[in-house]
Design a protein that fits this description.
By secondary structure, the protein is an alpha+beta fold. It has helices spanning about 10-75, 75-85, 90-110, 140-150, 185-195, 225-235, 275-325, 340-380, 385-400, 400-420, 430-445, 470-485, 515-525, 535-550, and strands at about 115-120, 125-130, 130-135, 155-160, 165-170, 180-185, 205-210, 215, 240-250, 250-260, 265-275, 425-430, 450-455, 465, 490-500, 500-510, 555-560, 565-570. The protein has a six-stranded antiparallel β-sheet, sandwiched between helices. The protein has a five-stranded antiparallel β-sheet with strand order 8-7-11-10-9, sandwiched between helices. Helix 1 (about 10-75) packs antiparallel against helix 7. The longest helix is centred in the N-terminal third of the chain and has 67 residues, at about 10-75. It starts with 7 loop residues before the first helix and ends in an 8-residue tail after the last strand. Mean pLDDT is about 80; it is low at about 375-380.
Length: about 575
């Protein structure tokens, strides 16, 4: 059976589905798990808030009651004012009242929930407030409520006429009461703290005393409060001290969290609409399935778009590569869209251009090497240089300076043997240095006042392979343009520096009269050397170095430290020569 050939489009669809289906499945699993975790965290957070607030309220009330008990049971001023012995004079009575006022002020400032403190002494006939003397007595209805609450209620809190206070009678409720203490709590502050637990308009937090049928709400009273009270009464007998309940109140589902305080005799209730608590999770689940369907549609559209985007440019590229393989290096591709194929086509055009350039450079390098050798032979073996050297040799012989004549003959022999022999276009650097030294030796005989200094050439760099005749033209240039016309002594420095994977050779003279404009012009001509038609002197050397090693190498000129022209030649070091 012949295998089915799949085109790019079905392959793209299958590939995207293979990738996206496991991701969608994993996302579904994570979404369900996350939804369950978030739901539980929301429930636990609300229950934790209820427990934290109720515990804080219990702690605060217990602390206030503890201070009340300490004053009542151990304070002598309270006992004196309650009994008021006949032996107490007016001064002592006033001082006792003043000390009680101070103690009540301290008790009031100990908690932000305390709004006012009253203590009534029947035998004194006055009520003392935390801020001074008050009315003659506590209203009978209020005092009766405190006494009745102390006898019959398990809760220390008394709610009367829209006020909430902690009441205490000493020594015990009855006709022989010494004094009655009333600590009124701030209902506005209590309601504000309850309202802070509700984070939206439909939720609320309520303190409920279902036995005495009074409530303190963070917001306005709601009609659903009756249903909540009924629920708490039905669960108060044998129900748990805390819990949560899903209830339908006024045709809407609510989540109700509650916790009872046996110490306060109250129940703290927090309720929130279920759609507000978990509605975000439901929306996320809906959006998830919408995104799954959209992703499948996008896979199909995207696969088809990529197919159309790739197929036609690929056919053009394959056809162009076939023509290049047949030898057509003039072919260029153009792509209108600014996408990856524009870069591919650009690289293709660059590659073809580079191939053409390499072919041209190989041909050019060979041609210029031949022309360079011919030019050097023509320029170096010229009658003027040869005749000058021979006349100097003749003069040395006549003067019986045979050692100098022998040295000159040796330099001339080495020099002319190097430039006239048929050899390779490339030689070792040490051979090039020896030829340059031979030329400098001949010139030293002609110009004995010029000192030639060679230094800094690393021994390992002698094995570098370089184009022929790259040093001697630079030294010749220094003599011709910098040193021949110099009065007095002169210096020619040839120095090498190795570092940063390259070798730099500097030929520097101390010639006079060099202007900055000349240096700038020469630098500009070196930068444009590839456009010159005539290749002589340092331009020849510069271009051959670039053809050999690349455009970042070659020659640069500047004013040297000696005051004359400094020509810097840079060539790369092999990898194994990095530590030379």
């Amino acid at each position: 059976m012949k295998p089915v050939k799949l085109t790019i489009f079905p392959k793209l669809v299958i590939t995207f589905l293979i990738v996206i289906i496991p991701i969608d499945a994993l996302s579904l699993f994570m979404n369900v798990s996350g939804e369950r975790i978030v739901r539980n965290e929301l429930l636990a957070s609300s229950a934790s808030n209820v427990h934290f607030y109720l515990s804080a309220l219990e702690t605060e009330i217990e602390r206030i009651m503890q201070l009340e008990r300490e004053y009542i049971s151990s304070d002598d001023d309270f006992k004196k004012a309650g009994v008021i012995p006949e032996s107490m004079d007016d001064y002592e009575r006033v001082e006792t009242i003043r000390r009680i006022e101070n103690k009540l002020s301290i008790l009031k400032s100990s908690s932000p929930y305390i709004q006012e403190i009253k203590i009534y002494f029947p035998k004194l006939g006055h009520t003392i407030l935390s801020g001074g003397l008050g009315e003659d007595t506590i209203p009978k209805e209020e005092l009766d409520e405190i006494v009745h609450h102390a006898q019959h209620s398990a809760s220390p809190l008394t709610y009367w006429n829209g006020r909430l206070f902690l009441g205490m009678v000493y020594p015990a409720p009855g006709n022989n009461m010494d004094f009655a203490l009333e600590v009124e709590l701030s209902l506005p502050l209590l309601k504000k703290s309850l309202a802070q637990m509700a984070n939206n308009a439909a939720s609320d937090t309520i303190l409920i005393n279902e036995k005495e049928n009074w409530t303190v709400s963070g917001k306005q009273e709601h009609a659903i409060l009756t249903d909540i009270m009924d629920f708490l009464r039905n669960t108060s007998a044998a129900g748990p001290q805390s819990g949560q309940q899903r209830m339908k109140l006024e045709n809407e589902q609510y989540l109700l969290y509650y916790e009872r305080s046996s110490m306060l005799g109250l129940t703290l209730v927090h309720y929130v609409p279920e759609k507000e608590a978990t509605g975000v999770l439901n929306r996320y689940r809906t959006w998830y399935w919408i995104l799954v369907l959209l992703s499948l549609g996008v896979v199909l559209l995207f696969s088809y778009w990529i197919f159309r985007l790739i197929h036609q440019p690929m056919r053009r590229l394959v056809g162009a590569l076939r023509k290049v393989g047949e030898g057509n290096l003039t072919l260029r591709l153009h792509h209108r869209s600014r996408d990856e194929f524009q870069d591919v086509y650009h690289q293709f055009n660059t590659m073809v251009s580079r191939i053409q350039t390499l072919i041209d450079e190989v041909f050019e390098q060979k041609l210029r090497s031949q022309r360079s050798e011919m030019k050097q032979l023509q320029s170096q073996i010229n009658p003027h240089f040869l005749y000058n050297s021979l006349f100097i040799l003749l003069t040395l012989i006549k003067q019986q300076r045979l050692s100098h004549a022998e040295e000159l003959v040796k330099h001339m022999g080495n020099y002319f043997r190097f430039i006239t022999r048929n050899g390779e276009d490339e030689i070792r650097l040490d051979q090039e240095i020896q030829h340059a030294k031979a030329y400098a030796g001949i010139q030293s005989v002609r110009f004995p006042s010029i000192e030639v200094i060679w230094r800094g050439f690393p021994a390992a760099s002698s094995e570098l392979v370089v184009p022929r005749l790259i040093l001697q033209p630079l030294i010749e240039n220094a003599y011709l343009h910098g040193l021949e016309g110099k009065d007095g002594r002169g210096t020619l420095l040839v120095e090498a520096h190795a570092g940063d994977n390259r070798l730099e050779v500097v030929i520097e003279d101390d010639g006079d009269g060099l202007e900055d404009a000349v240096i700038d012009k020469l630098s500009a001509e070196l930068r444009a050397a590839q456009d010159k038609n005539e290749w002589t002197g340092i331009f020849n050397v510069h271009r051959r170095l670039q053809l050999k090693f690349g455009s970042e190498y070659g020659l640069k000129v500047k004013r040297g430290a000696l005051g004359g022209l400094a020509v810097s030649m840079t060539i790369p070091l092999p990898e194994e020569e990095h530590d030379v």
